[in-house]
Design a protein that fits this description.
Blueprint lengths: L28 E2 L6 H11 L2 H8 L2 H5 L7 H14 L4 E2 L2 H5 L1 H4 L11 H17 L7 H4 L3 H6 L1 E9 L5 E8 L2 E4 L6 H8 L3 E2 L6 E3 L4 E3 L1 E9 L3 E7 L18 E3 L13 E11 L7 E7 L5 E5 L2 E5 L1 H4 L4 E7 L1
Parallel strand pairs: 1-2, 5-10
Antiparallel strand pairs: 3-4, 3-9, 6-9, 7-8, 10-16, 11-12, 12-13, 12-16, 13-14, 14-15
Helix pairs in contact: 1-7
């Protein structure tokens, strides 16, 4: 409602399978070649994203890929199959490391980088690969690649004139959501604050088309279309001082998105936690990344580079999480 639907789709959402099609033990760990932990955690979290893994394991992309040179989807397809099918305890993500510059120009081999930035660049590179060879799609159909069909959603921004109560709605696609946790004790309080209307400051002048003048206004942000996989970043770097925010922020195993939707009526929109990324270290500029993922056998594992160890949900929920991955 309120949004124009794309006339064409790149990938049909009906083809997405949210449940694992094959259940097995966890796959291999990933060797760290020196400051590559930020790569390892994202590769592991994506490997254990059920709808993405199901698609990549089907070979459907590589069988029809027409991209010349490096293709992020083909690289991920080969990587996921290697991790999940390997009998080795750990493998080297060599192809990803070799072609790092194609994923993001800012990444330099051997230098400590940010896992969140690597995630965003990886998803964008996969998205571009899905569009390779396609012409004249326009913006809206581009948001129907399998990457957007899995990770993508739409935010709704409603600006209300406080003088005449006229409203203006706009929409924006997203692949992840970054959250300010400075004043929060839990993910729920952060999300509740996000959907609370806020008055625009004077720098954000709003010209009301009904009043025909500049007027005070409020802005409310809601999730208009929820992604199948919701990726949340709990911002650990203070935007004013740059220091690391090391406090614990509570997050649930199951998250109901309904209270944060544009339409709050209806059935609960439940998401289940399946992966988290944790940063250990005193500052955001150094330290170590590790992750916890839920494998296809339904069990949780701590993945710290080449080491893969059993753990329980209580351990997972007790971390100073940096990235949270929820699947509907």
């Amino acid at each position: 409602e309120g949004m124009a639907l794309p006339q064409r789709t790149v990938f049909s959402p009906e083809k997405i399978c949210m449940d694992w099609q094959r259940r097995q033990r966890p796959g291999a760990g990933l060797f760290n070649l020196g400051n590559t932990c930020y790569i390892n955690v994202i590769l592991q979290c994506l490997t254990y994203t059920p709808p993405l893994a199901n698609y990549l394991l089907s070979y459907k992309h590589s069988q029809s890929c027409q991209q010349q040179g490096f293709c992020m989807m083909c690289a991920m397809e080969a990587h996921v199959r290697k991790v999940l099918c390997s009998s080795a305890a750990a493998i080297l993500p060599g192809a990803i490391l070799r072609d790092l510059k194609f994923i993001g120009e800012e990444f330099e081999y051997g230098r400590q980088e940010n896992a969140y930035e690597f995630l965003r660049c990886t998803l964008n590179a996969m998205h571009r690969a899905c569009l390779s060879g396609r012409r004249d799609l326009g913006v809206s159909p581009q948001e129907t690649t399998i990457v957007h069909q899995i990770f993508g959603g739409f935010m709704k921004y409603r600006v209300t004139c406080l003088s005449c109560r006229a409203v203006v709605d706009s929409y924006e696609a997203f692949l992840d959501v970054s959250l300010d946790i400075r004043a929060a004790s839990s993910l729920i309080t952060v999300l509740e604050d996000c959907v609370t209307p806020k008055q625009l400051d004077q720098k954000e002048c709003f010209r009301c088309s009904k009043c025909k003048k500049k007027a005070a206004a409020s802005k409310k942000v809601t999730v208009h279309h929820a992604p199948r996989v919701l990726t949340l970043c709990l911002e650990r770097a203070d935007q004013w001082t740059g220091t690391k925010i090391s406090k614990f922020v509570e997050y649930p195993e199951y998250l109901d998105l309904r209270p944060y939707m544009s339409d709050t009526a209806g059935e609960p929109l439940l998401c289940s936690l399946y992966a988290i990324v944790v940063h250990s270290g005193d500052t955001c500029l150094e330290g170590h990344f590790l992750c916890y993922t839920k494998a296809s056998n339904g069990l949780w594992y701590k993945m710290d580079d080449e080491f893969v160890d059993n753990c329980d949900i209580h351990t997972v929920l007790g971390q100073q999480a940096y990235l949270l991955f929820y699947a509907r």
